[in-house]
Design a protein that fits this description.
The complex is a heterodimer of chains A (about 210) and B (about 475). Chain A is an alpha/beta fold. Helices cover about 35% and strands about 15% of the residues of chain A. Chain B is globular, with a radius of gyration of 22 Å. Classes of the chains: A alpha/beta (about 210), B alpha/beta (about 475).
């Protein structure tokens, strides 16, 4: 995955509570392959909020405003990503171009899946999130900065807000290490295990 | 003298690469099974990261969820639904690109992943078997350690590393002793267990099924029991290997057979060391008397909502726990059932005999024995668990028994268990089904599912209502 260090990007205010993973990627797209370029998953991100039954963009939905086409940060209502464990929700978030989400709370599994895919979810107190939401609504297209090494979010008005993150998760994001990357740090141990295992179980040789 | 160990403890310990007592440990995966579900996401992700499968020989792929159960000769080209067709094609493409053996639509070894693993001897005692499916515990029936994993990120991790991170669960031994009464099967045993402990009853535990009833049971029956462990909340279910296991495995394609039989002997010597020590400790123990069991059917929307066929639909008012009372009422509303209705009077619209729970040869024999010389009065279909099971059933003439009785005789697929391939129960239709889940909408939106054994499903096909097979 792509390492996450510091991100300065247009931030979009998505002031809706409890956007579940079924709204992030509706169930009927569960069979959608994720091809190189990832345009398909960018398209299905929040699909039914963004598009009507005729596949036309809903003019009144905030992410359809031209100024948010390049949004890299989302400020979200509480419980964004609650619901089913589908990992496609994290894929769609990333493929749409979002690398950081800021909210008062997130769905647990979605949060973990985002981390695996290099997307940072930042939890800030609800009044702070409400303040950011208000600033972004007052100045559409405003940019924010997320500084992961310093664990600081810089609001459009220049105010800074510190956030917490699990030290292991932070390290993995900074290094661009997902679960596979972490495991492969144990490669020598894995190979030594396998060598001994093969020696102990010679009858398994045809498929080990 | 080392501390006494259970089967589960022993096999777990044998696979730990990075120990971390109390936390997630890194385990070696002997064999990994991949089906066609949503697994393309794992391959898509690997492709975009430029990763390869670390040990391709240790993974086997088979198409089962999305493959059609009819008009197979022209599949996948003839699959009308483009998305379903694409999923079937993608497994073939991904397996080829990543160098994995794949049993496709027309392969004689194709079948439901949990049926073909044991059938081919891919599943063996003491091996850690990972599979991206919640019914992976099926493989524990042979004394393997089954680890169910997710279809995207966790599968990708196993493919890329041949390892899995897992927190060691607690242990629960369920001891079933006694002789099963006539027409009472493995399915009735596991439904009785789930009805007793609830769908959350074994959460966080690896279950070992033990006792004289299990010892007397075939491998097919043991698989039915382990298969539904997840319906009691347990991701892992295991049964100690014994002579029944070794006889079942001997001569199967992936069973050890090299070095003039020496490999088999060495494997056998190892397998015999696996069963739980007599004084092994379990975190919990439960016991069940087999001789008191009766044929079971489900009446609600969870496998725990199951009762002996002689019972009636429960009265929500008589449920003391308020939360459970509300849940039972909602279940009866969905199932369109009035409290107090005798279960044996409930009319059925169709019958499905199939799935990883009950579509092995012994299941088809049990259903055929009931249907022999009788006729189905409602639409009914049999979907064998594997192409090999289908061929064997045909060699035994079972297909003719089913066809003569008016059943459809289809090709191996997960089919109407979850309906991924389009084999659905219509909204409002009531289905007697040998599957594992009776959740709302499981067999199709608005479908009303009653789960039961193959013999009980066959009896329902004859009478058109839930029926005690003992009285047929």
């Amino acid at each position: 995955m792509t390492p996450f260090t510091t991100l300065t990007a247009v931030a979009a205010p998505l002031d809706i509570a409890k956007i579940d993973t079924g709204m992030i990627v509706p169930g009927r797209f569960q069979r959608l392959p994720r091809r190189a370029g990832h345009a398909d998953y960018a398209r299905v991100f929040l699909h039914d909020l963004r598009f009507d039954a005729q596949e036309q963009p809903r003019a009144d939905f905030i992410l359809n405003q031209p100024v948010y086409q390049q949004a890299g940060i989302l400020v979200t209502g509480p419980d964004f990503g609650c619901g089913s464990s589908r990992e496609s929700a994290a894929y769609a978030t990333l493929d749409f171009g979002v690398r950081a989400l800021i909210g008062a709370s997130f769905g647990d599994v979605y949060r973990g899946n985002c981390m695996q895919n290099g997307v940072l979810t930042i939890v800030l107190p609800q009044p702070v999130v409400a303040g950011l939401m208000a600033q972004l609504q007052a100045a559409p297209g405003a940019r924010m900065t997320v500084d992961l090494p310093q664990q600081i979010v810089t609001a459009p008005d220049g105010a800074t807000h510190a956030f917490d993150i699990d030290a292991t998760r932070k390290e993995r994001l900074l290094e661009g290490l997902d679960d596979v990357g972490v495991t492969l740090q144990h490669l020598a141990q894995i190979e030594a295990f396998e060598k001994q295992y093969r020696a102990d179980m010679p009858w398994l040789a045809p498929i080990l | 003298m080392s501390a006494p160990l259970s089967l589960f403890d022993r096999v777990w310990a044998r696979h730990v690469i990075v120990p971390n007592p109390g936390g997630e440990e890194l385990l070696f995966v002997d064999r990994n099974l991949v089906h066609d579900g949503s697994t393309f996401l794992a391959f898509d992700q690997m492709r975009s990261e430029g990763r390869t499968v670390r040990k391709p020989k240790q993974t086997l792929a088979v198409t089962d969820h999305y493959v059609p159960s009819a008009q197979r000769a022209t599949a996948p080209a003839s699959i009308a639904n483009a998305e379903i067709r694409r999923v079937v094609e993608l497994l073939d493409i991904n397996a080829r690109e990543f160098g994995i053996e794949h049993y496709g639509v027309h392969d004689a070894r194709q079948g439901i992943i949990h049926v073909i693993g044991p059938e081919l001897g891919w599943t063996q005692p003491g091996l850690l078997i990972a599979c991206c499916d919640s019914h992976t515990a099926t493989h524990g029936a042979l004394g393997a350690l089954p680890i169910p994993i997710g279809q995207s990120n966790q599968l990708r991790h196993v493919l890329a590393t041949q390892t899995v991170w897992q927190k060691k669960p607690k242990t629960l031994r369920i001891t079933i002793d006694g002789v099963l009464p006539a027409h009472v099967s493995a399915k009735d045993v596991i439904l009785a267990i789930i009805a007793r402990i609830g769908i959350g009853g074994a959460v966080g535990h690896a279950v070992e099924y033990a006792g004289s009833t299990i010892r007397a049971m075939s491998i097919e029956g043991r698989m039915t029991i382990c298969n539904m462990s997840i319906e009691a909340g347990a991701r892992i279910g295991m049964i100690a290997p014994d002579d029944t296991t070794y006889t079942y495995l001997h001569g199967r394609p992936f069973a050890p057979n090299g070095n003039n039989g020496a490999d088999w002997d060495r494997a056998l010597a190892y397998w015999r060391t696996l069963p739980s020590d007599a004084d092994a400790r379990f975190d919990r123990e439960l016991s069940l008397n087999a001789s008191e069991l009766a044929p079971m059917v489900s009446w609600g929307t969870s496998p725990e909502d199951s009762s002996p066929i002689s019972d009636s639909v429960p009265e929500p008012a008589s449920v003391t726990d308020a939360e459970k009372r509300g849940r039972v009422q909602r279940a009866l509303d969905y199932m369109k059932l009035a409290p107090g209705t005798p279960l044996a009077s409930i009319k059925i619209d169709r019958v499905f005999i199939g799935s990883c729970t009950n579509a092995r040869i012994e299941d088809l024999r049990a259903a055929a024995a009931v249907i022999q010389g009788r006729r189905a009065t409602i639409p009914a279909m049999v979907v064998p668990g594997s192409t090999a099971v289908k061929r064997q059933a045909e060699a035994e003439g079972l297909d003719q028994v089913f066809l003569a009785a008016g059943f459809e005789w289809r090709d191996a697929s997960c089919s109407m268990c979850g309906g991924s391939n389009g084999d659905l129960v219509a909204a409002g239709q009531r289905c007697a089904s040998t599957t594992n889940r009776n959740f709302e909408g499981r067999q199709g939106p608005g479908a009303l599912t009653h789960i039961m054994s193959p013999a009980m499903a066959a009896a329902a096909a004859v009478t058109g209502h839930l029926t005690d097979v003992r009285t047929l």
